[in-house]
Amino acid sequence: MTHLFRRTFLTALLFAAQTAWAAPSTAADTLDxxxxxxxxxxxxxxxxxxxxxxxxIAPERTSGQRALVWQDIAAAPQKGATHGKxxxxxxxxxxxxxxLTSVSIVFRWLNWxxxxxxxxxxWRIIPLANPDGLYQRPPTRGNLxxxxxxxxxxxxxxxxxxxxxxxxxxxxDPRRYPGQSAGSExxxxxxxxxxxxxxxxxxxxxxxxYNLLDYDxxxxxxxxxxxxxxxxxxVYPGSLGNYAGLHKNLPVVTIELPHATSMPTLREQRAMxxxxxxxxxxxxHGIRGN
Length: 290
Description:
Aminopeptidase
């Protein structure tokens, strides 16, 4: 009996040790796969550089069993800083899978985010919110279920207006299908959880190809980031601007790049980034209080 107990105990210890050792390797393999796949899909993303970023992998998986990832970048210590809390900025790219540049430019920003001005903020970066849509051939606006994630957020008007709007205003355009119910999609649920847990002071959502700057939420609003001028498009049932900008009263800046598959020049990208940081410096610091 004693021998059997010892053997069982040692076997359990060995299994636990093997499991504990294997878990980090599995996570690393998943991140390697995620970066390798993205590097193959987007020529603008270097898989090796991607693997060096401190991306975290969510426990959730999309319907296509693809990973959802994010990265937190804490603010650098500031000389002479007050005791106010550091402003938090959430960046979301790739909500629509066929807007490839909305993912690419987030990786460009990651090359600049360690400079002095952006290090005044705590960033959470979600470079690709709709991986299933991106990897379709051809890529699709919606996710694998055919749902437009930017019409699926749990806004107060969703039950009453989402399907009516879709049928009457878009003529049941399948590219803008809002889903069977508010927040029905894994990706939408995950994004809503990110907003809830991270508690951002500002959300930057990147889209294409309308070549403009949109804004929802409290005043003041930005007027221009680089070549992108403000042109407020309004909100829709289930949109992020409705959910976070109106419902949660958060500043939601929507950057609509000029093209979905062709990046702006490096100079234009930099102008957008610098103007955005100047607007943040003027409007975000000190808003959280003590």
